Amino acid sequence: MTAVTAGRHARGSRTTAVNRTRPRRSTIHRFHRVLLFIASIAFGVTLWGLLSLRYSMTLLPSPNETWIAARELWHDGMITESIWASSKRILSGWGLGLGVGAIVGLVMGRFQLLRGLIDPWVEFFRFIPPISFVTLAVIWLGIGESSKIVLIFYTSVFIVTINTLAGVLSIEEAKLRAAAALGAGRLRILRSVVLPSTVPHLVTGARLAMGNSFLTIVSAEIVAAQTGLGALIWRSRNYGRTEWVFVSVILLGALGFLFDRILRLFARHALGRFEVRV
């Protein structure tokens, strides 16, 4: 009896030791990732600075010249105004594309007849770049916010639709038959089998669609906008301010990086039970 008790205490001690080391390893791993991130940024900026020594400011402004331009734009209020305008358009169009694309993808995956009717149009329009519709969007919807949001919606919806459809079609038929054999109806199967299996594909589609939204916002704002990062790029070109262009490009990349990280954090913590790995 004493030996059994001692064995239990020993196993409990080992379990406690393992549980204590896991947070330490996790902390060390995060620290290493932060160091790698900082080292990567420092290497990129250093390389940029060395390359800028060989060219004039018009061709390749240095990091210091770009920083001075960023401060100038910040004091004028152009940075905050541009970021706010572009962010609203991106999130609005992307959100609409995510919602519509998820619904269309689920419908196409569950109903073969509807998939046959919708699939030719999805395959047709997804190969036409959004920039082709910029002029038409302005003619049909005007130079207001609607034209920009619709273009971003257009560039997002097909990516989400295809990824959601792929998630539905990847479900094993045995799972669907087992759920039906247990008495689950179509709605119950959709809620308990189809949706959980499709979530990882939907998250991937959402991330890809977010990237495409940033590609589209520049062309949309260059043609028909007075504010936004795309409009700032075009204004910088008209004034011959290459350093302003660099500021705008860096802001686009940083904003996209931030949005993607927020999406990944949300998916990891809120959708982790669906085996989302991002």
Question: What tags apply to this protein structure?
Answer:
278 residues; mainly alpha; MetI-like fold; 10 helices; 83% helix; flat; disordered N terminus
Topology of this protein?
Layout: H1 2-52, H2 63-75, H3 78-110, H4 112-125, H5 134-141, H6 145-169, H7 173-181, H8 186-224, H9 229-239, H10 242-270
Large-scale geometry: flat
**CATH superfamily assignment of the largest domain?**
MetI-like
Quaternary assembly: single chain
Give the overall pLDDT as a whole number: 86
Class by SSE composition: mainly alpha
Name of the CATH class of the largest domain: Mainly Alpha
CATH topology category name of the largest domain: MetI-like fold
Instruction: Please indicate the count of domains.
Output: 2
CATH architecture of the largest domain: Orthogonal Bundle
The overall strand count is 0
Q: List SSEs in N-to-C order.
A: HHHHHHHHHH
Strand content: under 5%
Ends distance: 49 Å
**Given the structure, what is the number of helices?**
10
Q: Please summarize the sheet with the most strands.
A: none
| Rg from alpha-carbon coordinates | 25 Å
Helix content: over 70%
**Low-confidence runs (pLDDT<50, min 5 residues)?**
1-10
